[in-house]
What we know:
It is a single chain. By secondary structure, this protein is of the alpha/beta class. The chain folds into two domains: 8-56 and 91-274, TIM Barrel; 283-349, Type Iii Antifreeze Protein Isoform Hplc 12 (Alpha-Beta Complex), CATH 3.90.1210. Helix content is 33%, strand content 17%. It contains twelve helices and twelve strands. The protein has helices at 33-46, 82-89, 95-106, 117-125, 141-149, 163-175, 194-197, 201-209, 223-230, 257-274, 286-292, 327-330; strands spanning 5-8, 11-14, 20-26, 50-55, 109-114, 131-133, 154-157, 181-186, 212-217, 235-239, 295-298, 313-316. The strands form three sheets. It has an eight-stranded parallel sheet. Strands 1-2 form a two-stranded antiparallel sheet. It has a two-stranded antiparallel ribbon with strand order 11-12. α1 links the parallel β3 and β4. α1 runs parallel beside α10, α5 packs across α6 (163-175) and α9 (223-230) runs parallel beside α10 (257-274).
Amino acid sequence: xxxxxxxxxxxxxxxxxxxxxxxxxxxxxxxxxxxxxxxxxxxxxxxxxxxxxxxxxxxxxxxxxxxxxxxxxxxxxxxxxxxxxxxxxxxxxxxxxxxxxxxxxxxxxxxxxxxxxxxxxxxxxxxxxxxxxxxxxxxxxxxxxxxxxxxxxxxxxxxxxxxxxxxxxxxxxxxxxxxxxxxxxxxxxxxxxxxxxxxxxxxxxxxxxxxxxxxxxxxxxxxxxxxxxxxxxxxxxxxxxxxxxxxxxxxxxxxxxxxxxxxxxxxxxxxxxxxxxxxxxxxxxxxxxxxxxxxxxxxxxxxxxxxxxxxxxxxxxxxxxxxxxxxxxxxxxxxxxxxxxxxxxxxxxxx
Length: 351
């Protein structure tokens, strides 16, 4: 299956089309509805295409015995387990309907990442236009199958995965009817370090799976996202927050409102700069082309009826005369008019 373009809520995504930018709220709403709405506003007025939340309940993700990891230090309560952290920050189910309605009012696409099959049902009930699957769920085959059966496009993050994991996940999606999907290169480290990003994996994934590839950025800035555009990323996902200093696991590596606005601007500027792969004279270069290129110029006064010799011709700017490649052709020709020194030579001088 070749997936050169996909459609996300009415927007065509692919080579030659604008990058689709997803502002990831995740848990950065801090379980406060007004904060969630403010983040939607930030995403909209920064120029993002979609704003994304996360749909989960602790019971559907973690065993209560799951041990703490180092990334939780300083971003969770002392001795809090992953289960307890997720339980504390999970988004109430009823918020989905409120936030979807608010997104429609503001004019931005609402989407969310489900973490179990029950959350797929919730997202179906709010009619999300596509599904985003988190990296850690790439082996959650029953959920992948259920998402695929919805018939909606799927964006699959590939952090913490090898090509075999991705191949198996795609096989599940396709087996269950998914005809439209894209991959996101991702590093499942929070925050991700430059030396681990390996953005050239975007090109590897495009070659390996012949589909659109984007980038889910977990760094603390947006340099990687902008570079990803140059490597062919069609989608960029970036966490956002109102304040990096807010307590919570995702705030430190998220972008604040001014940074998000700059990210979107830089991506759009990058798309203009990358432009076309066709190498040709640009209209904006035409004047400099004529003045800066060289042509055949009379190196001395040439009289009407005089035979042109090599010592009478120089190659100088501007390029208003004959191209230097015609030097040998005009040697030996007879001038039909006076050609003053330093005047460019044209065919009219001989024909």
